[in-house]
Write a structure and sequence with these properties.
single chain, alpha+beta, 58 helices, 13% strand, elongated
Length: 1890
């Protein structure tokens, strides 16, 4: 029984003490005046009466009612019912508020009820003050409070003849029952009657209609969000204008949370003065009047529910976890069925007559029933996870959270995890975990209805029926007697509040009220307490748990077969059948990924333990430990499946004898797992074991069973611990005091002994075997973190100090033994503190434990020392022998093999993925660090794969990423340090160090690797140290007899250059741009400026005619460089012509940069227009970035157009000129002399082109200067290519399509429409008829009046430039990518091609997606697109200047590609070398900088500009395989070695730097004896003589071929250089290493016959397929060499054999009667794409391989012709090979031949061979080795020659003749005129025969 009301209070408006406009509440009277003993008077009640503040109103408002809830310090809730009415203010009150009464008019009624129009409420200006009647109660009877206060108000207003004191006194003395479904009629003595019904069960909340209203206001989704937010402890704030709505909403939300109780701040109505409460850090549910919405705006972590607007706002930083599926969707659908029953019928054609929907009260209960079902489904089986820790004197219960989550299959579920960790659930466990107590609806539901709920899931109607049944019960609980006529209470009349009240609310007589109260109290004391006894029972546990959603366990679905494998393996181990066990072990380790198999393992091992001990031999011990480790590695720290729990007793059971008296237990080998360092795991284990032992205390001995079986044992057949506890709790009151004491002591000693047991267990698993190594819990939450991680009961200050003292230690790296012991002691002490405090162990016992723990730990350490000592003596496990890698000559080991495991990375191939083949990874072996490479060699760890050697290596210089990782080793399954190394040669080493490799060694490896990767100086790289290593003591000797040595020469050269740069120019001042103030007037020396190119400047830039002797030496060296040989071939001037200034040549070779004074990054000799003086170049260069002014690098042999390159323009250069043209300025325009020079320079380039030299009659330059001097005339400027007018070029303009498109071209198509060059390059669509694959339209697309010169520049630079029709050059702005974009793109490409770990989604799509993200192919597409455009322009006769970025990255790429596409020479081996030497090396591509070769470049990172160029070449090679003399392998070889630093070729950034290092000319010096190759070209030459690996057999070029490849991304292929891998020997680009791989022994052949077929399995990714499976031609050549060796002849070189076969085939084509060689491959369609490769054509007999050996574009041979030819050629293949003596020699004799450029004349023996159509030469007559061949097919003319320098002196001038071929001019000299004439005649006749 309880009082209905504790206090009645009258609160009125009073002035604020500080005199502010606001008033404040004053308590006028309270009854009773003394506090009740059991319930003190709540403070601050006046704030809650008027939550929005006490204010006067200008009119009389209707009375309002609401209930506020206050919570006291004991978490008791007090309900304050407030009825407020308004009375005319007294004069004192008016005075307080008169000044701001006007401002308050808009502030309406506080209660939210509708405001009536003010009637005759009083004189104008009358104010009204609020007065509140308050009832304070601990019971929640809102309606009774409303009626009671209403009655008091009615008596006052209506003036009824009833004493208010009597009513108040009766109200305060009314006693009603608390619960149990009784009803009580009360009367307050005013002729009223009220019936109070109490709920049937006290624990079920009363909600009335609040839940239904909440759903109505906010909707299903919002309420579910709030529900989840409240459960997961977020802050929830309700806003509404109505206080009653706020109360109801909060009440409704709390009702939904049942059976959990909300235990945080709960204030349904928060007064305005307390709004700062909202910024509290703890969770809350609070209601605030919507008027204060603005104050709530800045709350960042509060979920705001606006009841009036129906919205819920969740801040961005708050994540509300949703309910786990399928509960979320199920709940949602059931709620919609309850709230909107019409929804199901809405689509019916014939809807049934509308059914009556439930009343609001009933709907409220239905909604609650849905949530009750939800909780029953969520918490189903929770009682199976309760641990009874103590039964007497009070139950202590703990919940095993991990087991619950694991068995429900919700470990990853964020929602349930947070709920179980929350305060509400802790309260739920302590309240509902009790086994013997009254039960309610929820207990029944969770125990008995779960099966029904599962069955109903798919039947909505059955679910609804169940909901309605539950709702009935909830309704009945609230309204046990629904039929009773309820209340009879007087109410005031309509609008009574507007009537003038007779008087203010009177002051009550305190004495009278107190007298009534005292009377009632006295009567109560006499009456017996009417206590209804609670019915307590044993709480049913319900069925065991099931997973909430039956998930298939995916890949590791543990079939019975897998469990069988596990059982068999264990039985083999214990039977000693080790070989059998070893075979099964890999399968067992795979099976143990599944949960069932791990459980099965634990069970099986339990069977082999007798009396808590099982002694094994070494091998058995190893096996058991390994399987345990494998089980534990997948355990999370929570151990939700109880695997670690079931293994815990086993790790102290299995042991092996190391020596007499020393036993090693399994726990010393399974410590490396995170679960052992988790306090929650130990607590759960401890409580589980305590429960088992406590239960055993109370069971009869017969019932008792072995307690060591762990908590997992199913407890169905016997009584569970909860049942036992329930029985004991029932008997407890009946026991005698002594018996009770005895039981309490027994329980406590049980807990105490378990605590000692666990202290021992924990020390076993936490102390490392080698306590000096202190590997204590490494890699995991070290114990330091655990200091604070455990949510223990230690006070925070103590825990803090412990943590600090721990952190000040030196960590685990070099901690002493005592530190390890100390950390373990602290960990165990904290554990003991927590569990003993919770389990009620007395403080004396606890102190005793604290004393024991250090002793336990110390004792264990001493035992371990002996075990560790003995375990070291065990013979180590036989690890595989380390395989030593093969090293290159000169390569030395820096660090010898560190034993490691090579782990599989994201590529499937090595692990036997989609490509097939065995899983050679993971492999066990060693990593070696040499001066050149990082090498792994080893064998697969899986012995069943085979014994293949696995090699993975890459050059140290190619390392791009190195990071430390910690990984599980594949064999021991323990966590080890590892390294993750990725290289830009697309190799990845993911390694785990073996245990024997200490962390110091691993660190040393990292340091050495870093030191080798980034040497301080380029001289420390492998390419330099390689040769030096042999003779370190002796300094290199200079050859003194040959004039100045090359090394000193290069040193002088650099010295001169430096001096040149240091010395100020005498005339330099003149060319500074005029200062800003003087810009307006013309400078005085303007005349000189304009004529400056005519005067010769004194000073350093001496013209070439006056070279000093030392410079001459330099010159001859420079002339030997590759560029000059190429310039001569292109006819761009020879040095002699430039010295004699032959004016006929438009271009000349200038040596102005021979000292590298003008531009450091350019070569010493440059091609410039003939008309430009050297001294003008200095000024031109200033307009360009890095001084890289435009120079010619190639000339088209046909159109004579030239290709120029330069750096981008500086702002003040031409672009500045063009921009400034429309700003006329008085006098001089804003251009200084250098930009003028630049304009002249470009004009000179244009004039040098034959087609444009004479177009204008006047001298354009003079026209320029006059216009320039005038200053008023706008200066003519260049025009910019914009959209040209679409026009059809006439079809006759180009009769035959020149060059080759990558498509079958329709021959009759007219020229396409012209597209805008710039927009085409910027990647927009072309206007022309689109060609399928990104090729531009027909070359007629450019306008007919073409510019003489197109300047291709960066769009960003050329902004704002306007076109100008007068000039002959045009700007083409294009968008290019920068070097940093290449770098980023390459990083992504690297990750896509060699991913570090397995992709989330398997299959090719993820690779293609990451490839696309890298944008690498897009960049390739752009480069090809720009290059094809430039090729088009050059082919049409316009010159092109490529002027992008600094001129050394993209410019180089484009210029090189253009030359490769335009000139067939560069597609030969020799030509490609020349192209790279000229454009990349001489023109200063920054190889060292881009490759980050030294420490200085480390920050810039690796940017593969050259690799990108090679990729472009590879794309062209794929489309035109017959046009290239070199094979794709050659490109990969260069791609690998340009970063490998094996050769010196690709080191340093320019020729200047190479001279400085003495590199440039040392290659030319005389060499004594064989030396290592320092140049990559030399290496390629040497290798090419031995093997055709760089040669492309399909090479059959068309001479005038211009290639136009497709450039669309869809036509590009991923280069296999990025993806292929050879694990047999590592990368195949170091040929010497690849050769040493052992071949399988040859089988015996029968006598001399053909070799028997030796089949061999070729594995993708392991073997190098091209090597193992050579093509037919290589095979034939090898066979040929073998046969020659057998015949005892010296084998001929492969190239000679090949050339001979080609020649023979050419001869065979002759008898066709046509003058052209017949092609075997090109089909009869004239313009068919010749890039399709080799056709294999079947002859009638057998199959012959027909090869394209040489061909011509117009092939007339039909298929049958080519078949016969094929047969003939193969038949004569071998007959061609004869010895040198019987060679066909038509004519022979001695001739002098001039060597290549700058080489002397030499006498050679020449042989003219008419059969082979060639002129061969030998050293002397008897020489069999041909020194060179001139193919007569290439000879254009034989003409008389002139003697040059160094020719034989005595010979007549007429004895000289020249043979001009397409490649070069050969100068010959015979002994006399007659023999010269004979030679000329013979060669001519040979040519005419052809």
């Amino acid at each position: 029984m309880a009082r209905l009301a504790d206090y009645f209070v009258l609160v009125a408006f009073g002035p604020h003490p500080r005199g502010s406009g606001e008033g404040q509440g004053q308590i006028l009277q309270r009854f009773p005046e003394k506090d009740w003993e059991d319930n003190p008077f709540p403070q601050g009640i006046e704030l809650f009466c008027q939550p929005s503040g006490w204010q006067l109103c200008p009119e009389r408002n209707p009375p309002t009612f609401f209930v506020a809830v206050l919570t006291d310090i004991n978490s008791e809730r007090h309900y304050c019912a407030c009825l407020t009415f308004w009375e005319p203010a007294e004069p004192t009150q008016e005075a307080v508020c008169s000044e701001d009464a006007a401002g308050r008019e808009e502030e309406a009624v506080e209660g939210g009820s509708g405001r009536l129009s003010p009637g005759t409420s009083g004189p104008p200006g009358q104010l009204f003050a609020p007065k509140t009647l308050v009832l304070v109660s601990r019971l929640d009877h809102v309606e009774v409070f409303r009626n009671s206060l209403g009655l008091i108000y009615t008596i006052h207003v209506e003036g009824l003849n009833v004493g208010l004191e009597t009513v108040v006194g009766n109200l305060l003395t009314c006693i009603i029952p608390l619960a149990g479904g009784s009803q009580r009629t009360i009367s307050l003595g005013a002729g009223d009657r009220q019936v109070i019904q109490t709920p049937l069960t006290d624990s079920l909340p009363i909600s009335r209609c609040s839940v239904a209203l909440l759903f109505r206001q906010l909707g299903i989704t919002n309420v579910l969000s709030l529900f989840c937010a409240a459960l997961t402890e977020h802050k929830v704030l309700f806003l509404s204008r109505s206080y009653q709505r706020l109360s109801d909403a909060c009440r409704g939300l709390l009702a939904l949370l049942f059976p959990l109780r909300y235990s945080f701040t709960y204030v349904p109505i928060l007064p305005a003065q307390l709004l700062e409460v909202l910024s509290t850090p703890t969770p809350f549910i609070i209601g605030v009047n919507a008027a204060f919405q603005a104050e709530t705006q800045e709350l960042l972590d509060v979920i705001v529910a606006d009841l009036d607007g129906g919205t819920v706002t969740v801040p961005e930083c708050v994540q509300i976890p949703p309910l786990p599926e399928p509960l979320q969707s199920q709940t949602h659908s059931v709620l919609s069925m309850v709230l909107d029953p019409e929804l199901e019928l809405a689509d019916l054609a014939f809807p049934p007559p509308t059914t009556s929907s439930s009343s609001l009260k009933m709907q409220d209960k239905e909604l609650r029933a849905v949530f009750l079902r939800l909780f029953a489904q969520l918490l189903q089986g929770y009682r199976w996870c309760l641990h009874m820790v103590r039964i007497h004197p009070e139950p202590v219960i703990r919940f095993h959270k991990a087991a619950f989550l694991g068995q429900r299959g919700l470990v990853e579920d964020d929602f349930l995890m947070k709920v179980l960790e929350g305060m509400a659930f802790a309260g739920f466990v302590s309240e509902r975990g009790v086994p013997y107590r009254p039960t309610d609806l929820f207990d029944e539901l969770v125990a008995h209805e779960v099966a029904r709920m599962r069955a109903d899931e798919s039947h909505p109607q059955r679910v609804l029926r169940h909901v309605k049944e539950l709702a009935e019960q909830l309704y009945k609980n609230e309204n046990p007697y629904p039929a009773v006529a309820m209340h009879k209470v007087q109410r005031p009349g309509e609008a009574s509040h507007l009537r003038r009240a007779p008087r203010p609310f009177p002051r009550l007589d305190e004495g009278m009220v107190q007298w009534i109260v005292d009377q009632a109290t006295a009567k109560m004391q006499g009456a017996p307490p009417a206590v209804k006894a609670e019915r307590r029972t044993t709480v049913p546990s319900g069925p065991p748990m099931t997973a909430i959603l039956e998930r298939s366990s995916g890949l590791h679905g543990n079939s019975a077969r897998r469990l069988e494998v596990v059982r068999n393996c264990i039985s083999y181990v214990f039977e000693g059948k080790m070989l059998e066990a070893k075979k099964l072990l890999p399968a067992v380790l795979r099976a143990l990924k599944g949960r069932a198999a791990r459980g099965c393992l634990a069970q099986e091992l339990h069977l082999h333990v007798q009396q808590n001990r099982a002694v094994l031999d070494d091998q058995q011990f190893e096996f058991v430990v390994r399987m345990m480790n494998c089980c534990l590695q997948d355990c999370t720290s929570l151990d939700e499946h109880g695997i670690a729990a079931s293994l815990l007793p086993l790790v102290t059971a299995f042991c092996r004898k190391l020596s007499p008296g020393v036993t090693q237990f399994a726990y010393s080998c399974v410590q490396e797992h995170v679960v052992w360092s988790t306090p929650q795991f130990w607590e759960a284990m401890f409580y589980g074991d305590v429960q088992t032992h406590i239960r055993a205390l109370y069971l009869e001995p017969a019932e008792d069973r072995d307690p060591s079986q762990g908590w997992e044992e199913p407890a169905e057949e016997e009584r569970s611990a909860l049942d036992v506890a329930s029985e004991q709790r029932r008997l407890w009151p009946t026991l005698s005091r002594e018996k009770q004491q005895e039981l309490v002591q027994k329980e406590e000693s049980t807990v105490f002994s378990q605590a000692i047991h666990y202290a021992n267990r924990m020390s076993y698993l936490l102390l490392p075997l080698d306590s000096s190594k202190s590997r204590l819990l490494r890699e995991r939450a070290g114990l330091g973190d655990l200091e604070s991680a455990s949510n223990s009961l230690v006070t925070s200050s103590m825990a803090g100090s412990v943590a600090e003292s721990y952190d000040t230690e030196s960590g685990f790296e070099d901690a002493e033994t005592c530190d390890v012991a100390g950390a373990v002691v602290r960990f165990i002490n904290r554990f003991v503190d927590k569990v003993c405090t919770e389990s009620g162990v007395t403080s004396d016992h606890l102190k005793g434990l604290h004393v024991m723990v250090p002793d336990i730990v110390q004792m264990h350490i001493e035992t371990l020392e002996a075990v560790y000592r003995e375990s070291k003596r065990l013979p180590p496990i036989q690890k595989p022998k380390l395989l030593r890698p093969h090293l290159l000559p000169g390569e030395e080991c820096v660090l010898d093999g560190l034993r490691v495991y090579l782990l599989p990375d994201g590529r499937e191939e090595g692990a036997g993925g989609s490509g097939g083949g065995p899983a050679v990874l993971p492999a066990e072996g060693a990593v070696f660090l040499t001066t050149y490479r990082v090498i792994f060699t080893g064998m697969p760890t899986d012995p069943l794969v085979g014994e293949q050697v696995v090699v993975r290596s890459f050059p140290v210089a190619a390392l791009t990423k190195e990071k430390r990782i910690s990984v599980l080793t594949p064999v021991e399954q323990i966590t080890q340090d590892g390294l993750h190394l990725r290289s830009c040669t697309f190799q990845l080493l993911k390694m785990a160090f073996d245990e024997e490799v200490g962390s110091e060694k691993a660190e040393l490896f990292r340091k050495q690797l870093h030191k080798l990767r980034y040497p301080l100086d380029i001289r420390s790289t492998f390419a330099f140290t390689l040769g030096a290593g042999h003779t370190p003591s002796r300094p290199p000797r200079a050859a003194k007899d040959k004039g100045p040595s090359l090394r000193t020469l290069s040193r002088n050269l650099v010295k001169n250059a430096k001096r040149t740069m240091g010395r100020p120019h005498i005339t330099r001042k003149k060319y500074n741009p005029p200062s800003y103030e003087h810009r307006g007037q013309p400078p005085e020396d303007q005349e000189d400026e304009i004529s400056v190119s005519e005067e010769l400047e004194p000073g350093t830039l001496t013209p070439t005619s006056a070279l000093k002797p030392s410079d001459r030496m330099t010159m001859s060296s420079l002339v030997e460089r590759a560029c000059c040989r190429d310039y001569q071939r292109l006819g761009l001037g020879t040095l002699s012509s430039s010295l004699s200034r032959a004016k006929s040549e438009p271009f000349r070779i200038s040596s102005v940069n021979r000292m590298y004074a003008i531009c450091r990054s350019y070569p010493g000799l440059l091609i410039v227009p003939q008309s430009v003086q050297d001294n003008a170049l200095q000024r031109v260069s200033r307009c360009y970035r890095q001084n890289r002014f435009p120079v010619v690098c190639w000339r088209s042999g046909r159109s004579r157009a030239v290709l120029l390159r330069s750096g981008g323009l500086h702002g003040k250069g031409v672009v500045g000129l063009f921009k400034a043209q429309n700003a006329p300025s008085p006098g001089q325009s804003q251009a200084d002399s250098s930009s003028l020079e630049q304009e002249k320079y470009l004009q000179a380039v244009v004039s040098s082109m034959p087609r444009y030299a004479d177009t204008s009659g006047r001298n354009t330059l003079s026209g320029f200067s006059s216009a320039h001097m005038g200053g008023h005339v706008p200066s003519p400027r260049a025009r910019v290519t914009t959209l040209s007018n679409p026009m059809a070029a006439s079809a006759s303009r180009r009769t035959a399509p020149r060059g080759k498109w990558g498509s079958v071209r329709a021959s009759g198509r007219s020229g396409g429409l012209g597209g805008d060059v710039g927009s085409r390059l910027a990647g927009r669509d072309m206007l022309g008829p689109p060609q399928a694959n990104g090729a531009p339209p027909d070359p007629g697309f450019l306008r007919p009046h073409r510019a003489a010169l197109y300047i291709i520049g960066d769009k960003a630079q050329l902004k704002g430039v306007r076109p100008d029709p007068l000039q002959q050059w045009e700007l083409v702005p294009i968008e290019v990518f920068e070097a940093r974009q290449v770098k980023t793109s390459f990083k992504k490409l690297l990750k896509a091609c060699v991913p570090g770990c397995q992709a989330l989604e398997s299959g090719p799509t993820s690779f293609l997606r990451s490839l696309e993200d890298s944008e690498w192919l897009t960049q390739i597409h752009k480069l090809l697109q720009v290059s094809v455009l430039v090729v088009e322009l050059l082919d049409s006769g316009s010159s092109v200047l490529v002027s992008l970025e600094d001129g050394w990255d993209i410019t180089t790429q484009v210029v090189s590609l253009v030359q490769l596409l335009s000139d067939p020479f560069y597609r030969t081996l020799e030509g490609f070398r020349l192209l790279v030497e000229k454009e990349w090396l001489s023109f200063g591509h920054r190889f060292s900088h881009r490759g980050a070769h030294t420490l200085a470049g480390q920050s810039s990172g690796f940017t593969p500009v050259f690799l990108q160029f090679l990729d472009c070449v590879h794309q062209v090679h794929l489309q035109f395989p017959m046009e290239f003399e070199f094979s794709p392998f050659y490109l990969k070889f260069l791609g690998y070695h340009h970063v490998s630093r094996r050769f010196r070729t690709f080191l340093l950034d320019s020729d200047y730097e190479r001279i400085e290092q003495g590199l440039l000319y040392e290659e030319k010096g005389e060499r004594k004896g064989p030396q290592v190759c320092r140049s990559v070209w030399e290496y390629v030459d040497r290798l090419s003589k031995r093997t055709p690996v760089f040669y492309n057999y399909m090479y059959a070029p068309e001479d005038t071929e211009v290639l136009r490849p497709y450039s669309n991304v869809s036509n590009l292929k991923v280069w296999d250089f990025y993806t292929e891998e050879t694990l047999a020997q590592g990368p195949p680009y170091d040929w010497e290493l690849a050769q040493v791989s052992p071949e399988p022994p040859e089988e015996e052949r029968p006598d001399g016959g053909a070799p028997q077929s030796r089949r061999r399995v070729v594995w993708p990714c392991y073997d190098s397929r091209p090597r193992v499976q050579p093509d037919a031609i290589s095979r034939l050549l090898e066979e040929l060499q073998r046969l020659e060796t057998e015949l005892g002849r010296p084998p001929e070189r492969w190239k000679d054999s090949w050339d001979r076969v080609k020649a023979a085939q050419r001869l065979e084509g002759r008898p066709d009667g046509r003058g052209t060689p017949s092609s075997l491959l090109v089909s009869s369609v004239p313009h068919h794409r010749r890039s399709l490769g080799v056709y294999l054509q079947e002859g009638p007999v057998g199959s012959t391989l027909s090869l394209s050996l040489d061909s011509d574009q117009s092939s007339g041979s039909t298929t049958s012709g080519s078949r016969q030819a094929a047969r003939r050629s193969t038949s004569t293949l071998y007959s061609q090979f004869q010895t040198a003596e019987s060679e066909n020699r038509s004519y022979e004799g001695t001739l002098y031949k001039k060597g290549a450029f700058m080489k002397p004349w030499k006498a050679r023996w020449f042989v003219l061979d008419k059969t082979k159509h060639q002129l061969r030469y030998y050293d002397h007559r008897t020489d069999t080795e041909c020194k060179g061949v001139i193919d007569l097919a290439e000879v254009e003319a034989v003409v008389p020659g002139t003697p040059t320098m160094g020719a034989p002196k005595t010979v007549d001038e007429k004895a000289f003749f020249d043979v001009k071929t397409t490649r070069r001019v050969y100068n010959f000299c015979a002994q006399d005129v007659l023999s010269a004439q004979q030679w000329v005649d013979q060669i001519q006749s040979c040519l005419s025969d052809a």
